[in-house]
């Protein structure tokens, strides 16, 4: 057990956890932030995607020690009230089906828009291919990212 | 506003003497207001048929058990309690919208509450694409009754005739004076009125939500991470568990070394789960559970644990040699499941005969949320939170396992992170309950992806052979379809050695072709693993074989595949496809007859919209297929290209006729999802078994479609006033044959095996 200091959704936290424990399980089982989901544990599905210093990471394989002194943003912290342009677009286009993959999809797209405010279809595919959706909401994910991109202003895309 | 008198609903209410007041009643509402209980199953003769349902019981008419509640609070908020499980199909939104529409409730004031698993709610098993089909009419009436009662309450208040009072957008208006009263203000008075016998239903042009695209009621919760799925429940004192199960179905643990798991930091305890029965049924498989302070430690502890397994009788199961055995099986006569005319004579007299064999492997559901459950067993009771399609079954089996009355078990249905049939089997719930009972504390059980892929209830491996006789003009005069795959029923009953008639009625014996001599046979295929329902069930492989074979016949006779398909379907007419077949969808044949005209319709629409017949560059091709299942008709055209051996799907046009559409956007979404699901199984889905064990582990060797392989998808909804039918499953079956046929059009290479492998010879 070790103490790791991380900023989570804007709040500085001292987390007691084994250093090699994946960020996902620290978030879910130690801190009770269940927005990030478990889908594969092998960085294959993207369900666990969160932002680490603004970059999309697969929290199921990244140890908590790698987050020391850094900032993590989860779906719960992307906005206070679901008002991030991606969240809004997601609802307007009725993207969610079962919804399980959605926190990961949105966080992955948030990192994309933060570094590339107007991605092409190919760039969207290249980034979002990290995230699986068994319900097959891909057509709407593409559309929603484009809709949000049209509205997003530089600086809010990182969500922190 | 014009109104028409309510017609007796087409599902037989009225006709069988069940009056409206018998299925809608006022009940006492906590906090006051108007509360209506609705029994949508009242007097039901069917529900989904026994082949699909987990023995869904016929609801006796002697007891009134409302399964939908509408509660109008005095604040004006409307709470609708929905007893179907949400797994992405939008059922919570759709069912509520139907009530809200007839009630003239403001959608923004409607809240949807999930019912717990309880027989008081009637049959809650969510499957078979039946929720809308079975509930539509009665939900409309319930909404209309609520509105009528509010109008009456207003009329009483103003001392005016009720016919001058009209409920509209959450208030009742007195037409002559323009006075209004809000629904909330009328709730209490309305709640004291008797349920009216005669209510007017809207005409379709008066609908405000039905037929419109409404936003999903759960969108905000989902997009903010607040939606609670199986593993998201947090209880004080809760521990986390992972289970080591025997890799072979029917095996059991001989011994294990708990200390190996206990040595992992965070692991608290190791407990044994008794081996499951044979046949496996819905029971837990048994094994060894590792309990820890967090999920990760439980996984690590489970990995560290070595178990000495007795692999049992299925340890020699090998999917490659099983396939060969099934190939042998379909080359000999099986048990007749349907026979018309004289196929043998047709073959003997044929100008031309043709036969082909088709293969599909085992498939896994692989919903993004693996099975997960939270259970808390105490001395007095048991509380369960689980993503289950059939909450009553889970509750009943949990109670049975605990040896306690069902009333002592409380089951909360969480969101389902995808299900596709997997979560109608509550084995994982029973595991969590069993662990919690032993520990006497709340347990959160999560399956890993490896657990999910290796301990599924698989869509069966199948081999089919179709033989056709053609006359001199190229017309098909004889059709012999043999199908072999392990039956779902074998998961529950010993001695089932081949598909059942119910399974054959999912696309095989119900083939709507206008062929005078036709026979369908079930060939032997004993089960060696757990077989289960997967999104559209045996329709998947039957549609693949029939759709691909129809295309072969077209090529053989030099005809256009679409024209030949239409010729096989024959002229538009109502036929009894259920004659001699098990009526698997429990459909009322008089209300929803099988109409080949509707199947022709979706073929024509898909073809037209896809630009069927247009010229394409070399290496590109269009393929077409159509299928009817769950009372819905779907036609699909695929456009593909093959470049240097690489297959790319460019575009899918899918036309659906599902009767009156309640929420067009959701229908589109379901069809888009079905296309993606169908493409995953056509291109990638392949579970193989060796030494009785599944060889795949995770999404690297059981890939599902990613966004960069997504084609353009165009969904075309055929306008219809027929009763609404389901859309969760019917979009899946035609996708694989349409793609296979498109590959042939592009390359001349026949695809008879799935997943498609262009390098196979
Ligand atoms: S759970 Fe992390 S990528 Fe799948
Ligand atoms: S919405 Fe269900 S997995 Fe993506």
Structure description:
With about 160 residues, chain A is α+β, with helices and mostly antiparallel strands. Chain A contains five helices and five strands. In chain A, strand 3 (about 50) and strand 4 form a beta hairpin. Chain A is globular, with a radius of gyration of 15 Å. The relative contact order of chain A is 0.17. Chain B has three domains: about 30-225, Aldehyde oxidase/xanthine dehydrogenase, molybdopterin binding domain (Aldehyde Oxidoreductase, domain 4, 2-Layer Sandwich); about 230-315 and about 370-445, Aldehyde Oxidoreductase, domain 4 (2-Layer Sandwich); about 320-365 and about 455-745, Aldehyde Oxidoreductase, domain 4, CATH 3.30.365. Helix content of chain B is about 25%, strand content about 25%. The longest helix of chain B is centred in the first third of the chain and has 28 residues, at about 130-160. The interface between A and B is large, with 61 and 65 residues.
Outline of chain A: globular
CATH class of the largest domain in chain A: Alpha Beta
Which ligands does the model contain, each kind named once? FE2/S2 (inorganic) cluster
The named CATH superfamily of the largest domain in chain A:
Beta-grasp domain
Structural class of chain B: alpha+beta
Which radius of gyration of chain A do the C-alpha atoms yield? 15 Å
The 3D shape of chain B can be described as: globular
Strand order of the largest sheet of chain A: 2-1-5-3-4
Q: Kindly provide the radius of gyration of chain B, computed on alpha-carbon positions and rounded to a whole number of angstroms.
A: 27 Å
Biggest sheet overview of chain A: 5 strands, mixed
Q: Tally of extended strands of chain A? A: 5
Instruction: Note the total helix count of chain A.
Output: 5
What is the percent of helical residues of chain B? Answer: 25-40%
First-last Cα distance of chain A: 28 Å
Across the major sheet of chain B, the strand order is: 13-14-11-21-18-19-20
